[in-house]
Amino acid sequence: LSKQKGGNQLTFFSEEMNEEVLKRFEMEGYLRKALKNKQFTLHYQPLVCLESGELFGSEALIRWYHPKIGNISPAQFIPLAEETGLINDIGRWVLNEACKQNKLWHDQGFTHLQISVNVAARQFQQKHFLKVVKDALQQSGLPPKYLILELTESTMLKNKKHSIAVMKELQRMGIQVSIDDFGTGYSSLSYLKDLPIDTLKIDRSFIHNLRMNTSDAAIVKAIITMGKGLQLKVLAEGVETEEQMKVLKKLDCHFAQGYFFQKPLVNQEFEKGLQQQ
Ligand code: C2E
Ligand code: MG
Ligand code: MG
Ligand code: MG
């Protein structure tokens, strides 16, 4: 009986595996068509200056709506897009769209707004990445100093020599670079003095339980102090409560982003917020 049971389990297990593989293939097929079928949109989450409370820009976050599946989170499909190489086309679309939208806001009179765009490792490492960025700026007419590119530590440290050259060229062009999810990489900090970086974005895992005199507060404080010493700006991600905001203010953190201020919004909703300010 137990053998029979085991046998059944084995069959069940392999069916599950098939389902997984099938699902991946299916997803890949859907992802291949998503750009052409205009299933991607961008949402914009306000970036806020803690001292003045003013909104100074936004992070562009991709959204995928598939008519059969519904919404699929970027945490799910960006890795698949990287594995398949589709990230280059998707990433180019994001850059073009984000620059175009930010230029539109400039044209409406919000000429101080920055736009922060996530760049995946494979996208950054592609041969023509600089050309893709230049084209997005040229076609939109957005001045380079209003564009921020978000890279992770592992992205920059892959192919280090090449990465440094690309980052230096970005800096020469006047584009800013942020380190996304800062504090979650396992790399040494020595790269911080060699690389042209403008901002550290403290990962939201350090903010989630942030209260005064906790170990998270000690880590956040250390990052802010180090950032100041290196003349970097520091932004806290994932700020959800007033208490977290107050602690960050007390620790002299420059910038913040999170549900406490605003969730990521579609462009029209973001615009309403601008007009109300
Ligand atoms: P990320 O770049 O670290 O973006 C921040 C994520 O935290 C976003 O999730 C945002 O919606 C979420 N978030 C913002 N405030 C809060 C908060 O107060 N609490 C909590 N719990 N979450 C908050 P999202 O939009 O699901 O994106 C997830 C990740 O997917 C991003 O993390 C980024 O790594 C990636 N991603 C998103 N859009 C793009 C894109 O256009 N290109 C690339 N390459 N990656 C993207
Ligand atoms: Mg980001
Ligand atoms: Mg982040
Ligand atoms: Mg993060």
From TrEMBL:
Transmembrane segments: none annotated. Residues 24-277 form the EAL domain. Coiled coil: none annotated. This is Diguanylate cyclase. It comes from Cytobacillus kochii. The chain holds residues 319 to 595 of 595 of the full protein.
